């Protein structure tokens, strides 16, 4: 019987280089922590700062929508524009200059004082001996005091010049940093409708004091205007507004909407508070949210014509570089603010229908708990064995209702109840307060479904939409990242999440739609019963010079037909050290890190998919070229599973004439389990091996050489 061999793409050029003794090159995937300012207006040119990590190779920005051009101005590493030697020289000179006695004038009052040290040709370092003491102190705080520097992962900075077309459409966009052909995560960017104002830099030189500490009257900003700023620890930002008596204004903050989740902060998002104060500093009005939205909206009717202060801070006086915000200030009559009430975002699946009173007939009704303590009751007739679904939408559509569903039979017996069900498609919610019920009715008869608020609250805005009737099986698929970058192998790892609706639990097959040449999907099946699966993209051929936009489609059999759903591009983000959310992204992309070349192939035998015995294993082999030259004496191949599900392991790994032989095993408890597995191949230094004198520093045997990932493959565990 002829034996089949699966050809798996691996980074051919890099692999051969590694086997021939040259080092494998690895790069850091670009990541954006924040962009500031996080918006601009059409027809303008401005500078923006993109902060994150892995930005050294930054070459451009990719925006959703048309009408924005970006060019790189400069890159600054985590130490800023100064080398360590220059930093020490500036520190010593500033210390001497600030100690020099003087009454007025520049800091250099003593002719014997040394001249300023040679520094990079930047405006802030020119004519240091003519700067005021205030400027020199600001220079110290900005460039010498390391406590004021951003920490990883926002310590690298790329500054870009943006040119916005006069016809660029206004509204929310997303931008990504392009590094060669690699792509970063997306961040929010708004093209605004009003003139833009930017808060002076934290340690501004040669300018009037900034909004946080004004020492004298400043001209008020004219309305309408969009204010851009950053909140630092303990800081309260104040902006002067020139307002006219009787002309109501509306102030809308964008902060949490710009940076939805903070991984290392509690709460895990910016919590802005805004207020209006009079000329004496007395607070006149304040806002700290907009319904369930943490970004506040404030209305203010000026009692008299004057210059007022718009005050902005974090609710608990936190702050750091990524506490970025925008505040739109406009005449209330001309401003637009989204109205977030249940029923305003109805899609095709939520088309309202009349309540049928029959469990076998689907009903979608809209209601409102208009007063505190109010409940609504829906009575219907059901038959024994009928499948029933009751789903309430309220909080997901902006209603304050914390819903409760309870089902009673004709005797008043409680059959089921629910008050919270997580909806992973709703990636921007941190409290999933909408209830969901699914059950089979026990007998023929009359039933009553009760809708209430868990805390007994109610009011005009406590709106909801209720779906009641038979299950409507469906599914959705989300990615865990929207930029899938190839490292130094022919495969790039990502994960998908299946949202199974109303009890549907079948296989889901993913496929690339009109894929670019050389790109393939590996392990593209989500098995029945699984929600999260690892997959890989493979690439053969020469890597392109720019990122590629791709589309993934998920297909499954529902009822008697085949249904296709677009895979939703998402980015998994963490908030408050623990909680993960799948945040929507505008587009799905493939990127290529520096060092990618033409793909080669390796042979895994036997060919996947594989069947393993529960409590046992299967011997596999991976055909790899023999190590050439001095590498054979210095390195050994290493094979490992990448984030494997519990119960799988590799053992008995050995290098033979045909490549790597190994045993893949599954625990007895995994019987009936199906999943995708991914292998990582690398070279590790042998104990006691010494690099030859001609070897490059990167090839020293004290550092492993990563060769990359093999394609995802499907494994099923059978009972012995």
Question: Which short descriptors sum up this protein?
Answer:
single chain; 720 residues; mainly beta; five-stranded antiparallel sheet; five-stranded mixed sheet; flat; disordered N terminus
Question: What would your notes on this structure say?
Answer:
By secondary structure, this protein is mainly beta. The chain is 6% helix and 42% strand. It is built from four helices and 50 strands. The strands form 13 sheets. The chain has a five-stranded antiparallel beta sheet with strand order 1-41-43-46-45. Strands 3, 5, 8, 9 and 10 form a five-stranded mixed beta sheet that branches. β8 (171-179) and β9 form a beta hairpin. α2 (84-99) packs antiparallel against α3. The chain is flat. The two termini are 25 Å apart. Mean pLDDT is 87; it is low at 1-26, 207-216 and 339-348.
Nearest-integer average pLDDT = 87
Task: Label the overall shape.
Answer: flat
DSSP helix count?
4
Q: Helix amount, in percent?
A: under 10%
Work out the number of β strands.
Answer: 50
Largest sheet: number of strands, sense, barrel closure: 5 strands, antiparallel
């Amino acid at each position: 019987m002829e034996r089949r061999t699966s050809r798996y793409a691996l980074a051919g050029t890099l692999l051969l280089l590694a086997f021939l003794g040259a080092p494998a090159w690895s790069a850091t995937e670009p990541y954006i922590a924040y962009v500031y300012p996080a918006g601009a207006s059409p027809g303008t040119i401005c500078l923006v700062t993109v902060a994150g990590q892995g930005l050294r190779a930054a070459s451009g920005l990719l925006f959703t929508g048309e009408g924005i051009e970006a060019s790189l101005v400069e890159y600054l590493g985590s130490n800023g524009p100064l080398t360590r030697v220059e930093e020490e020289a500036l520190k010593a000179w500033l210390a001497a200059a600030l100690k020099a006695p003087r009454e007025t004038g520049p800091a250099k009052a003593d002719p014997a004082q040394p001249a300023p040290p040679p520094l990079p040709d930047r405006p802030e370092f020119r004519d240091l001996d003519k700067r005021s003491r205030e400027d020199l102190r600001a220079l110290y705080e900005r460039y010498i005091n390391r406590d004021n520097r951003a920490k990883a992962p926002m310590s690298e900075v790329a500054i870009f010049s943006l040119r916005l077309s006069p016809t660029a459409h206004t509204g929310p966009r997303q931008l990504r940093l392009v590094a060669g052909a690699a792509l970063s995560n997306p961040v929010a960017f708004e093209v605004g409708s009003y003139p833009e104002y930017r808060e002076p830099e934290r340690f501004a030189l040669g300018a009037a004091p900034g909004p946080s500490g004004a020492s004298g009257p400043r001209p008020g900003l004219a309305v309408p205007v969009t204010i851009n700023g950053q909140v630092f620890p303990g800081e309260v930002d104040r902006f002067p507004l020139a307002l006219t008596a009787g002309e109501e204004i509306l102030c809308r903050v964008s902060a949490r909407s710009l940076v939805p989740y903070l991984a290392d902060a509690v709460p895990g998002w910016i919590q802005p508070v805004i207020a209006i104060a009079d000329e004496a500093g007395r607070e006149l009005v304040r806002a700290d949210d907009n319904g369930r939205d943490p970004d506040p909206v404030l209305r203010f009717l000026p009692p008299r014509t004057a210059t007022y202060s718009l005050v902005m801070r974090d609710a608990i006086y936190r702050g750091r570089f990524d506490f970025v915000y925008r505040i739109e200030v406009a005449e209330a009559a001309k401003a637009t603010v989204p109205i977030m009430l249940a029923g305003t975002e109805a899609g095709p699946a939520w088309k309202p229908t009349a309540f049928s009173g029959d469990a076998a007939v689907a009903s979608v009704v809209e209601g409102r708990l208009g007063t505190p303590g109010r409940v609504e009751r829906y009575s219907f007739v059901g038959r024994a064995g009928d499948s029933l679904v009751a789903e309430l939408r309220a909080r997901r559509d902006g209603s304050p209702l914390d819903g409760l569903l309870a089902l009673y039979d004709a005797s008043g017996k409680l059959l089921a109840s629910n008050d919270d069900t997580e909806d992973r498609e709703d990636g921007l919610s941190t409290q999933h307060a909408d209830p969901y019920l699914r059950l089979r009715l026990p007998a023929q008869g009359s039933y009553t479904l009760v809708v209430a608020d868990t805390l007994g609250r109610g009011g005009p805005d406590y709106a909801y939409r209720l779906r009641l009737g038979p299950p409507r099986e469906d599914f959705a698929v989300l990615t865990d990242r929207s930029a899938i970058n190839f490292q130094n192998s022919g495969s790039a790892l990502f994960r998908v999440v299946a949202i199974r609706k109303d009890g549907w639990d079948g296989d889901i097959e993913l496929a690339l739609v009109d894929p670019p040449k050389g790109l393939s999907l590996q392990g593209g099946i989500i098995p029945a019963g699984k929600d999260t699966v690892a997959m890989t993209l493979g690439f053969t051929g020469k890597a392109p010079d720019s990122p590629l936009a791709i589309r993934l489609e998920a297909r499954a059999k529902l009822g008697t037909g085949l249904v296709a759903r677009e895979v939703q591009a998402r980015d998994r983000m963490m908030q408050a050290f623990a909680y993960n959310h799948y945040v929507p992204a505008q587009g799905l992309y493939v990127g290529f890190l520096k060092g990618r070349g033409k793909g080669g192939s390796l042979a895994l035998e036997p060919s996947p998919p594989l069947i393993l015995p529960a409590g046992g294993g299967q011997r596999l082999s991976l055909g790899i070229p023999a190590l050439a030259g001095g590498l054979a004496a210095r390195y050994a191949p290493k094979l490992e599973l990448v984030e494997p599900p519990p119960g799988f392991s590799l053992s008995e790994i050995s290098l033979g004439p045909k490549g790597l032989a190994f045993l893949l095993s599954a625990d007895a408890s995994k019987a009936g389990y199906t999943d995708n597995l991914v292998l990582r191949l690398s070279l590790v230094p042998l104990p006691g091996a010494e690099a030859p004198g001609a070897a490059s520093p990167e090839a020293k045997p004290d550092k492993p050489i990563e060769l990359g990932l093999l394609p995802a493959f499907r494994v099923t565990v059978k009972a012995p």
